[in-house]
Amino acid sequence: MSNLETRPDEQVCAPGSAVGGVELLEARDVPLGGPRAMTVRRTIPQRQRSLIGAWCFCDHYGPDDVSSSAGMQVPPHPHIGLQTVSWLFAGEILHRDSVGSWQTVLPGELNLMTAGHGISHSEESPATSAGRPRPPTLHGVQLWTVLPLAVKDSAPSFEHHADLPVVVHDGARVQVFLGTLRVADEELVSPARTYTPLVGAQIDLEAGASVVLDVDPVFEHGLLVDDGDARLETDAVPPGALAYTAPGRARLTVAAGESPVRAVLLGGEPFAEDVVMWWNFVGRTHEEIVRARADWAAQLTDLDDGGTDFEPGAGERRFGRVDGYAGGPLRAPALPEVRLRPRRRPGS
């Protein structure tokens, strides 16, 4: 999904300081594309904490009634330096991109796009699903991970995984969509390709149930609660919030109170590189972001009626061309007037 903010800030993302217990990160509402557009609840990045491992972006949306609306409509737009992770609780999204992918994703399935040096894509609620009206509800999360310096300019690619590992045990269901997680003496390993040590998993608990997760003590973790009466360790986590734990724990306990819980676990080895993020671009310097914006602008042309289209030959340019979406590509917003430098780590 694009960050459709019309005036996005340039974010300097760096590991935050460690905390002793569970740190609660509240979400903020962000209207994508304006006050009448789809609103998401964003927990990272924020001033308090901008990264959890390589996870640099977490938008939580829905449940939205899309039975009588256009649903999600995100026109073609560019990315660099990241992976996009599309994960649904309900509904259906159709993905198209400039490397030729055309793939629907459903709940329990993973769409994983690696931007590398540059890619463009669109996402939309399809008009029909298998010849029937599309599902009436759209609900899920859109996540990004930072690509490390060694591969951030690699060739773009796309993966879809419909068969992901899952375990059901004592009222708990855990499905891993990225990385590796050990639950109830079973090691769940996602087949999706990652470039840093990390984990992503959906956790569903019946009322009164709990699950013990055997986690990598090197990792920091965040638990995003979608719904229900949830606790991480001994701390209550309200729906929409993300609970953070620093490295050093070999086990995490997630429990449900009087109502069932659905949550997403994000974790990873603390990301040590300097990162600058603006709009849909993740880089290392302000100049890299400026260059990516200019390269995208060079692929677009204004139409006489005020719309936007791809320039002839755009398919051979940095971000390629997305075909099949009923509308033109997004024009990038104006860059901020302030030039930011990545925050330096102690001793660097």
UniProtKB/TrEMBL annotation:
Matching CDD domains: cupin_pirin_C
Gene3D superfamilies membership: Jelly Rolls (2.60.120.10)
Pfam families: Pirin (PF02678), Pirin_C (PF05726)
Domain Pirin N-terminal: 39-144
Region: Disordered, residue numbers: 307-348
Superkingdom of the organism of origin: Bacteria
Positions of the Pirin C-terminal domain: 202-298
PANTHER family: PIRIN (PTHR13903:SF8), PIRIN-RELATED (PTHR13903)
Similarity comment text for this entry: Belongs to the pirin family.
Protein name, entry field: Quercetin 2,3-dioxygenase
